[in-house]
Design brief:
The chain is built from 19 helices and 18 strands. By secondary structure, the protein is mostly helical. Strand 3 and strand 4 form a beta hairpin. The structure holds 1-deoxymannojirimycin.
Length: 587
């Protein structure tokens, strides 16, 4: 509109047109000035320091709990009532072997634990000295870095809190807690935050640190943040958008997206349920319950009944915008949260069991595949399915590091719902990821890769010709491509290996973990910390100067826990959110 208008004037009255352009420019500069002024004013709103629960506390300068809702809710669905059910044990019943071999084994494991802790201390100390308060440390260039959409609220600081506690770094934990108590959620350069990431990293981190330490100040900060994130549900249909735009939230203008990752929509049930359990305020649980009811309504109406498509149209609440199905990127934690929320609710809400069982039947039938390998290894992977009217569900044997969480999920579901077959599938999936780590020169699996699949989940003979004709033969036999050969310090493989160890008690998993840890340390260590790498296809690696907060929150935490006594974060007492933050299960 604007450009057309000016063009017309230039043609007819050159002088007036110059004037119009001048006025337009002045208006643009004035509005820019206004935005800058607003930011300055925001920065100048005085932060009140008070003493709260023994800490210097900075209350956020915007109190979202007092913000009137544009779409108020007349009645909140409360938490299910009743005494928590006694669910089947998740953890293997470990016993202590008093023999000399048993003692020697414990010493060896303790040495490994110390090495993992040293890697954490190195990463944390550099973050503290160089990047404290920033979202991340750049581990090669040695600078602090804020991630757009993470608010600059110190993602690594908050994400690391539970690890500091678990690793018994109490002095550091209290120093970090003191810093977290001064986070002002209203003070950010970003105009929106990523709803999913802020929920799993910041809200999950604070709630977990509270559950572990019982420091009330952490709960207080979590509530402030929870009240801000709750605004994501103040939309016409109460479904959350991917981006939480602060100014739109204030004006009641937020709407859910037309093409949002399903994981982003459906990965808040643990954090919001825990917030209701801890505060007694039903609004948080009510919000996630609405999303769960949509999942329930849709489960058997998708083009792959049982599962949900990777992308959701939450604005129109319509299903037909996507026909791709995966346990990987953009969808993963939707599935992960089903058995976990069931556990957090003490087994009192049956819908999560129903959704889990329905989804996993479909996953087993359509997404899992056994790779063709020279040794006919008894391992499984999860691929991607695309459904078209002509082909029906079509499975691609492309897998991702992100899908490696599935082993742990099947194990947990198998234990909680007493489905032994799921525990076995979980083991085969976890071992698949370990196989893929072993297959690469760096000893780490690629971010995305393709394999050759057997026709069924049973063994199939190795076909050298098929591999020679169809693969990049510089890769290990069994691999077709390594489409994305990076390693981003991700946790999913060690996550499943850790969970399977705790569920089966099989010490082989500790051996796998130790090999994985040594490879990761060798391939990613920098002078200051640890870094993502360009390719796992070479033993000599190129560091890409990134250390996401999940390295300290998840990857190193799982490595530490697998070498720790099994009562440290016992899985019958805690359930871990998707960022590995332990939340207390009801007893
Ligand atoms: C983490 O933030 C979480 O585990 C999430 O569910 C997936 N991506 C990263 C780790 O890879």
């Amino acid at each position: 509109m604007w450009t057309e208008n000016v063009a017309w004037q230039v043609h007819h009255h050159p002088h007036d047109a110059m004037l119009a352009i001048f006025r337009k420019k002045t208006r643009i500069f004035a509005s820019l000035g206004l935005v800058v002024l607003l930011y300055l004013l925001l920065a100048l709103v005085p932060e009140r320091r008070e003493t709260l629960f023994g800490f210097t506390y900075v209350r956020s300068t915007y109190d979202w709990s007092q913000h009137p809702l544009r779409y108020p809710i007349s009645e909140y669905t409360p938490l299910p009532t009743g005494a928590p059910r006694s669910l089947p044990p998740v953890q293997y019943r470990f016993t202590t072997d008093p023999s000399p071999e048993g003692v020697a084994r414990r010493e060896l494991i303790a040495d490994r634990r110390a090495e993992v802790k040293a890697a954490f201390i190195k990463s944390w100390t550099s973050y503290k000295n160089i990047g404290f308060g920033y979202d991340e440390l750049l581990p090669v260039s040695g600078k602090g870095h804020d991630v757009p959409g993470f608010g600059g609220w110190g993602a690594t600081l908050v994400d690391s809190l539970p690890t500091l506690w678990i690793m018994d770094l109490k002095e550091e934990f209290y120093e970090a807690t003191a810093a977290a108590a001064t986070i002002n959620w209203a003070r950010t350069k970003d105009t929106s935050c990523n709803y999913f990431e802020t929920t799993i990293r910041h809200l999950g981190g604070l709630l977990s640190a509270y559950d572990l330490s019982l420091e009330r100040v952490l709960l207080e900060k979590a509530i402030e943040l929870g009240d801000m994130l709750y605004m994501a549900y103040d939309t016409p249909n109460h479904m959350p958008p991917f981006w939480m735009d602060f100014s739109k939230a204030k004006k009641g203008q937020l709407v859910a997206g037309y093409h949002d990752p399903s994981a982003s929509v459906a990965t808040s049930s643990l954090e919001f349920t825990r917030l209701t359990q801890l505060t007694g305020n039903s609004k948080y649980y009510d919000a996630i319950n609405r999303v769960t009811r949509v999942l329930e309504e849709w489960q058997n109406r998708t083009s792959l009944p049982g599962m949900w498509p990777v992308f959701f149209d939450m604005a129109q609440l319509e299903l037909d915008s996507d026909n791709s199905f995966s346990l990987g990127a953009l969808a993963d934690s939707l599935y992960e949260y089903l058995p976990k929320t069931f556990a957090l609710l003490g087994g009192l809400e049956p819908v999560y069991e129903k959704l889990y069982r329905g989804a996993m039947d479909t996953v087993i039938e359509n997404l899992l595949f056994r790779p063709m390998t020279p040794n006919q290894d008894d391992v499984l992977f999860s691929g991607s399915v695309y459904v078209t009217p002509s082909t029906g569900p079509y499975l691609t044997a492309e897998s991702q590091h992100l899908t490696c969480f599935a082993g742990g999920m099947f194990g947990l579901g198998g234990k909680l719902f007493d489905i032994p077959e799921h525990v076995q599938i979980g083991e085969r999936l976890a071992r698949g990821c370990v196989w893929a780590y072993d297959a690469m020169p760096a000893g780490i699996m690629p971010e995305v890769f393709t394999l050759f699949k057997c026709e069924t989940l049973e063994p199939c003979p190795w076909d050298e010709d098929e591999w020679l004709n169809g693969a990049n033969t510089q890769l290990t036999r069994g691999f077709k491509t390594a489409r994305d050969p990076r390693y981003l310090l991700r946790p999913e493989a060690i996550e499943s290996v850790f969970l399977m160890y705790r569920m089966t008690g099989n010490p082989e998993y500790q051996e796998m973990a130790w090999k994985m840890f040594q490879s990761i340390r060798r391939a990613t260590e920098t002078k200051l910390a640890f870094s993502s790498i360009q390719s796992v296809r070479n033993a000599e690696t190129v560091k890409t100067d990134s250390m996401e907060s999940f390295w300290l929150a998840e990857t190193l935490r799982y490595f530490y826990l697998i070498f720790s006594p099994p009562d440290l974060i016992n899985l019958d007492e805690y359930v871990l959110n998707t960022e590995a933050h332990p939340l207390k299960r009801p007893r």
